[in-house]
Design goal:
Number of helices: 4
Strand content: 35-45%
Shape: elongated
Helix content: under 10%
Length: about 725
Amino acid sequence: MARYVKSGTVNTVQEINSELEKIATAQDEFLTRNGETPNEMKNTLDMNSNRIINLKAPVSGTDAARLVDVTGEYDITVGIDETPVFDNIAVMTSTTLTVGQLARCKRYYVGGDLVEGLVYEIQASQTVDGYADHTLSNGNIAKLNSSDNISTLQCGGIQGANSDQAISAWLQHPQKNKLLVGDFLVTNISETVSNINVYGGGSLSSTSGASSVVTLTGDNNIISEVSITSQLNQQQQSGILTFVGNENQAISNNFGWDVFLDPVLEGEQYGSHGVSLSGNENIASNNHIFNTNTGVLDVGINNVISFNTINKTARGVELQNRSRYAKVIGNYIDCGYAGLGLGGCDGIWGNRNHRYSFIDGNTILFAGEHGTYLQGDSYTVTNNIVRKCNNSGIKAGAKSTDNFWYVGETVEELAPNGDYTGFDIVIANNVCSFNEVSGGTTAEIYLQPNLMNVTVKNNVIRDGGAWGIRSVFFSGSPNDVMKGITFSGNQIHNCVAGSISCASSDIALISNNIVDGLIQTDSRDNAEPLTNCTIQGNSCANITIFRATNPIVSDNVGTHISLVSDTATLKGNIFSAQENGNFNSRVISMVDNKFTYNGLITASQISLQGCDDVQGNYFTFPDATASYPLDVIFNSATPTNGAFNNNEVSAVNSPRPARIGGSNSTINGNRIYGNGASDFTFGVYADNCVISGNVTNAGIIRLETGSSNNIVNGNASKITDSGTANLLSNNRP
């Protein structure tokens, strides 16, 4: 019926009674506060965005639920009226309960703390673990009914006491979310589980047992914000957490040993780990890992090791031979010189043929041996900071033993003796400093056989105890591989042995480096010199060409260059303090260079004998007083159309600044400055040459005895002819 509406003006008693009857009829549609009937709704109740408050907890399945009942902040008691309630589990299990009942316990153990969420559903007889689920006296079982998460306390864990079975039951319970509440002692926990989430801030500490404190075999498990430690030492217990499976995650945990036993004291045993990722696409991130032999161990494909803090460890991260596509990113590794001087005590160790690794943005300090030592292929090492390690900062190499190949993989490159060779490696944008504190002969970045196609670029290196960057061959190893080496764009300062030493058998590029020390080439031995080498655009102290065949040396700026063996082509270089001495008749071509020679230069000390192309160079001898500080002799035995053109030679204290010799060549457009007061001589020993357009400052071009059949034309100089059949024309002082 509609609400009461007054009918016009009411004047008579009859009209008043009629209105009262309408009011009484309308009241039948009202809800009452005290439950008078009728009091049920006949249509939908619209609260118009207002709340219903002080609602009682739901009991039957059709009762309204409060927000707290839905969110699970407290336990939902649907189906019971919070009875029966028992003080503890023992009392409940001694009670006869029927299938379908729900029961609640206040605490787990007699006299124990109150525990939330101990609500059980009574089911028919079945096998139970006695921790999460329990057998009653009548044979029925009480099954823990955890609606949102399950805590260790709900499964009977006892803080400060051994709780292996309780923890195992807790992990095996079908509830996904596992709340680690409290601090528990364990030996070893090893469970096969998947899709669980362990969190909560509690801790597990092992007091005995040889294997990992916790081993989870399965997929998609998460452990976060908990602490797992061992009270033993690294020889007694092999690890803290081991994942065996795929897509597992360890996030923001504390893992480690209470005490640290240095590998020096335990016989070089490195097996114990903080986290082991055995499987694919697992993650260890933002953990604090401490007092380990190995911080994180990768034994799988596409695993991620990121932003962990790893302290006091013999080996921060280990990539084993099964590792593929590992991402080691943003970790802070302070080894604390653990295992000082022992092999394998590296900040990051790539053990044998790990492949396709990405190592980026890590900080590595105080490694007992190398900051990183990688023995695989096809990896990148970028944007890392490596400081104060006992040997190399970053080291690369390869080993022939204990490598692993997945089905379908092939060895793309073998050394001649069948050894595995690392290849396609990039080491870039790293900062390495104060490494090689042991005083050895390695480098801030060090390459050893067998390697090919390695690029070391854009690194900043300083204050090294040996070389800045160095590649080597091993003595007495004739089949070693080291080739395709690029050192480019690096900045190197204040390294004890020198800046760059590049040993390669074939293909080497040293370019655009800014260094304050020596750059040198090398090869396996004198019988197999380096071929296809380019040294270009560097700023350095000096360059030494050693055991290399005709490297192209161009556009470098330094103090001096030395050709110890073999040959070289020099173009566009500036050497400001070229040392006294010659080029050992090993320059093939010299074009557009600038040389300044300091100190007294003796006669014929700067020898370019056999060099057939000397053009556009500047030679300055400010202190030379002897004759012929520059001596260029073309190959006259086998005429090669040599050229000494457009050079400038300045030796203002020398009576004879330069001597040029050869045959079938051109000597054109040169400017020769000597001691004008002594009527200096520009000596020419030539046959069948064109000598034209040369300028001397009050000096003489002298055709020495034996010169013949030369055309001498248009020189701005006096000409003295002691030869035969020379044609002189249009020359003037």
